[in-house]
Specification:
Layout lengths: L4 H11 L16 H13 L7 E3 L5 H13 L6 E3 L8 H21 L3
Length: about 110
Amino acid sequence: MFESPIDLLSYWSVKKEQVQNTRLVSMSGLKMNTVYRTVKDLEEIGHSVKQIISCVDNDEAGREFHEKLRKSLKREDTLVDHRPKNTKDWNDERKDSLSNSRLSNQKQTQLGM
């Protein structure tokens, strides 16, 4: 669950090799009803939702939403915390990842690799 479409796309671009059998959903904000509706819709078409992965922003509003979501679930192991650790959101994570990749490539070029 993502706060915005750009965070969803940024997460996918950074983690695309690791994202398998997963539905990525943007809530376009912090909307608990979007979480409930998504789970309900998936179950109605025969999917079993084993985990909800929280990829909301690493800020006060994101922390509060994550905690509220955790408390609302019947089983604690259903919610996986995948909020960004070093930046505010997944778009910033993507930017950092691209920047680090460019720096690494520049160093390799300078070393003649």
